[in-house]
Queue: 2 jobs
Job 1
Amino acid sequence: MVKIGNLELKHGLCLAPMAGYTDRAMRLVCRKYGAEYSVTEMVSAKAVTFGDQKTFNLARILPDEGPVSVQIFGSEPEIMAQAAYTLAKATDGVRPVAIDINMGCPVNKIFGNGEGSALMKNPELIYRITRAVSSAIDIPTTVKIRAGINQNSINAVECALAAEEGGASLICVHGRTREQMYGGLADREIIKNVKSALHIPLIANGDIVDGQSALNMLRDTGADGIAIGRGAVGNPFIFTEIISALEGREFSSPSIEERVDTALHQLKTAIEEKGERMAIPEARKQIALYLRSFHGAARIRAEINRALTYREVEKALRSALDE
Ligand SMILES: Cc1cc2nc3c(=O)[nH]c(=O)nc-3n(C[C@H](O)[C@H](O)[C@H](O)COP(=O)(O)O)c2cc1C
């Protein structure tokens, strides 16, 4: 069980934030299959303070989504606090459960600006940012970190303690260094060390791809909950699979019909939000992963890559049922 403020998550099952993926459509479909909590794609704190409408669209949460946090990135405590205050009020949509601070993004553009995982170079700044944000809002502040910057600077314990000291209510740890990006394996030992040091709940993250890897992560780290990223793309059923594993029940994989229906439902929601022109190109990479176990996947993928309308995607996907 995980507590975030007054919110209780029975299994502590979370959808990890992923830029370009965890939009409303993906969050809703993961919730349907058992995700108890999700986080938006990261948004720039600076852009929020400039009043950028695209940024507000990314951060908007609607009432049917269940508990969702908004993730911000940046490096200046005052700007982070101002953005958190604006987003926590949520004049457009429902209020987030928490404001999550990104301290793990490895990409050069963000890291080079001293944001995302670059904050892990400076635990004192982590303290100041978390303090500023948690003082500015009346909902919990949560923080997502990595193991460290590289193998020679594994300092997740120090960074997590700085965030806790600054008023964080929960820490999520992705057990890779910034240098690893998404390669290699997530280190469960470091997650376990952070869990032992903290008084607040910890969510473990990295390489959970099925029921067994979820159980292993919980067993090896003692984490209060887990967050699933890539393992949920094109596979929201992973949440049902993990709940079954936690409860010692059998899980039967969804049929091709259910995969097709789920992919189409997710696409339809994305189109309602963004329109076909934007939603279809964005959804291609997700639909490709729904096709994982299909006969004729390469042909269907090629058709979807050419498709410009919902109907064309539907026709290509439904053809899988005739294979
Ligand atoms: C395409 C992509 C986008 C991501 N975007 C974010 C993000 O916006 N914020 C964040 O904290 N982590 C982000 N992550 C990291 C994931 O939340 C997660 O920590 C990482 O993928 C490891 O978990 P997994 O093995 O379950 O995927 C992203 C990862 C991927 C692959």
Job 2
Amino acid sequence: MGWLGAGTLAPVLRLFDTAKGGVVPFEPRERGKVSMYVCGPTVYGPPHLGHGRFSLVFDVLRRYLAWSGNEVTYVSNITDIDDRIIERAQREDRDWRDITVRCEGVWYRAMDKLNVQRPDYDPHATAYVEGMVELIGRLVDHGVAYETSDGVYFQSERVDDYGLLARQPLESLKAGARVEGTEEKRSPIDFALWKKAKPGEPTWPSPWGPGRPGWHTECVVMSLGLLGEGFDIHGGGQDLAFPHHENERAQAVADGRRFARYWLHNGFVEVEGTKMSKSLGNVTNLLDLVEQYDPRAYRLLVLRSHYRSPIDVTDDNLRDAERSLERLDTFARRVAELGVAAEPDAEALDRFRAAMDDDLDTPQATALMFDLVRRANQLLAAGDTEAAASLAAAVLEITGALGLELHAEGGEVPEAIRELARQRDEARAAKDWARADALRDQIVAAGYVVEDTAGGTEVRPA
Ligand SMILES: [Zn+2]
């Protein structure tokens, strides 16, 4: 892997665009400004590990774009009206709003624990129904939507390149379509824009009678409404590419609007080697994960895989991530104690950029980060504090750009104990093992844990 030194062209971020089926240079609508829309949760139950992954993947992209000097506008919606919300409300005999408000609270609690930055805007579908009714009206006027006894449907085949995001020809989409909705549908791939209300359901008024919008109409109206035509990135989990994102896109195309410039999708989550499913119970609950493990472990796990690859969430690899975080924390404490300020090593940052610009190669970026820690510890052991401080500053830049918070405080070790640790390092350097052991015993007796690292004696409260 080469890095770009001074004088060469600035690296350009390249991303895999689902619509183009390949990695392409990312050129935002407006230089220095990036607009992103990431499909958020439908708030009817607890968030699962798949929600955690897409939130982390797009949080990393957002942070990296901002770190690279862009002004990022990040929108992620809350779908607060949906069949599943209504079903649960009816099953539990509760007000549907009680469910959505509580589930949204749980959602943000999990996101905060994961250190996922809050969106700049989190539009709620129920606040945009008027705009959705207007769009559906225009689609009916354009002759691409039709009314049935149970709603209004979009005629997918009227959009020339329908199926673009599925990367499949129309015929195979039709053959594979689930039979859903009314028999009055003209094609199995037509989808509901408006659902006429059944008794007892929440409703909004429309020219086709009381009802509620379909999910695909929600996102197209909210994304265009907040970010404008030709916004930069539309993202979500791989399962959303088709039909959800394709159906959003089809409506925009049929309405003559320029939609997202780039489509990004992240890979699936497997749990203990099995594709995630509800049957696995609690282990798939994101809140359980962030309570049972260091919440940063999931971010590190996500970073260690390429965002388009599947990840396997297991107890083993979460524990392994926790141990790696402990190494990073120890390093951060050591650096903080040194108290030496330095400019981040430029070559290290160039290599970080090169990895991230290559379709967000976070596995390579994290490998680089751990390599820098190892090299900095070696330099510290060799007494080259200045060079070590420069690599350490690069590590902190990188962890910051990736949203990985390090715990540099972690237990107050008094100066007297740190002095004993320094004396022990001197004794070891002089191969005076008896004295080194005696000093170790002294530190342990004072209630501290002693660890030997490449950078020397590490001490923390027991
Ligand atoms: Zn959406």
